[in-house]
Design goal:
There is one protein chain. It is globular, with a radius of gyration of 18 Å. By secondary structure, the chain is of the alpha/beta class. The protein has one domain: NADP-dependent oxidoreductase domain (TIM Barrel). An 8-stranded parallel beta sheet has the order 3-4-5-6-7-8-9-10. The protein has a two-stranded antiparallel sheet with strand order 1-2. Strand 5, helix 3 and strand 6 form a beta-alpha-beta unit. The chain is built from 12 helices and 10 strands. Bound molecules: NADP nicotinamide-adenine-dinucleotide phosphate. The site of NADP nicotinamide-adenine-dinucleotide phosphate (NAP) has 26 residues, from helix 9.
């Protein structure tokens, strides 16, 4: 598997498997097993997905050496204080049934991110986490965190797909030596992404599918991708993207598809912040 080197020197697979919205734990375990058996080594979960235990069971049952896997999880905003974050990290370790987590992210840029980050830094120094990063941070929030804390995030996991390409955010993070990881690389299928004509024309040339072209385009931008599927045929297709290369013109065609707005929600919209963070406030008091 092709890897990228993170700013703390560790290698991370550039293509992995996401399990957002796979809430049926048996289905989650089976999907992760299928993914690992197919050759995926990076698995992306989160405390908020409520399936860390299923991911942990799949890791064990797979028989693959722990050191050959790269497990990512994320701390939810309801644990964004220093004390709660320390407990949250322990809960993720326990749920996953592992001695260490490869990468642990602050899931959202809200609340006491600095306090929570300090707990991640401590766990990193204690060897419980091999790399620490963030998700859904914008450039200013990333810079603020960098300047306020000791350890720079290795990754910013953000929405990047053909409809929402986030060029300035991607460029900023990459300039700062922070790896960009794309969530919803397929925009969860929105706007007929799997049949879009412009993408299909490129796909046809290589005997590939739209999904494969999208993943290839992201990989060629130096971005880590974590497509999700619970179907083994799609799981296999989504990793079969290392035997062709898009030309500069094809990269331009893909760049022209940008609609310039999130396909889900604007993380800066006060209504979104209220929805994502407001409901956690009671826990934090
Ligand atoms: N940090 C964050 O805030 C955040 C937010 C969202 C997601 N994520 C992470 O990013 C991962 C990926 O994002 P996502 O799950 O939201 O969306 P996604 O990967 O863009 O799309 C997943 C959807 O596409 C379908 N699909 C997958 N491969 C396909 C193929 N080859 N052909 C046709 N359909 C296909 C899947 O259906 P089936 O499953 O039925 O095959 C599923 O409905 C998540 O699982 C999660 O780990 C992180």
């Amino acid at each position: 598997m092709q890897t990228v080197k993170l700013n703390n020197g560790i290698e991370m697979p550039q293509l992995g498997f996401g399990v957002f919205q796979v809430t049926d734990l048996e289905q989650c375990k089976q999907a992760v097993l299928d993914a690992i058996n197919t050759g995926y080594r990076l698995i992306d979960t989160a405390a908020a997905y409520q399936n860390e235990t299923a991911v942990g069971e799949a890791i064990k049952e797979s028989g693959v050496d722990r050191k050959d896997l790269f497990i990512t999880s994320k701390l939810w905003v309801s644990d964004f204080t220093y004390d709660r974050a320390k407990k949250g990290i322990e809960t993720s370790l326990k749920n996953l049934g592992v001695d260490y987590i490869d990468m642990y992210l602050l899931h959202q840029p809200y609340g006491d991110t600095i306090g929570a980050w300090k707990a991640l830094e401590e766990a990193y120094k204690a060897g419980k986490i091999r790399a620490i990063g963030v998700s859904n941070f914008y450039a200013d929030q990333l810079k603020n965190l960098e300047l306020t804390t000791e350890i720079k995030p290795v990754v910013n996991q953000i929405e990047v797909n053909p409809w929402y390409q986030q060029n300035s955010e991607v460029d900023f993070a990459q300039r700062e030596d922070i790896t960009v990881e794309a969530w919803a690389p397929f925009a969860e299928g929105k706007h007929d992404i799997f049949t879009n004509e412009a993408i299909a024309q490129i796909a046809q040339k290589y005997g590939k599918s739209n999904g494969q072209v999208i993943l290839r385009w992201l990989l060629q931008r130096g971005i880590v991708v974590i497509p999700k599927s619970v179907h083994v045929n799609r799981i296999k297709k989504n990793i079969d993207v290392f035997d062709f290369e898009l030309t500069a013109d094809e990269m331009k065609t893909m760049a022209n598809l940008d609609k310039g707005e999130s396909q889900f929600f604007d993380h800066r919209d006060p209504v979104t912040i209220e929805q994502i963070f407001g409901s956690s406030l009671a826990k934090l008091k």
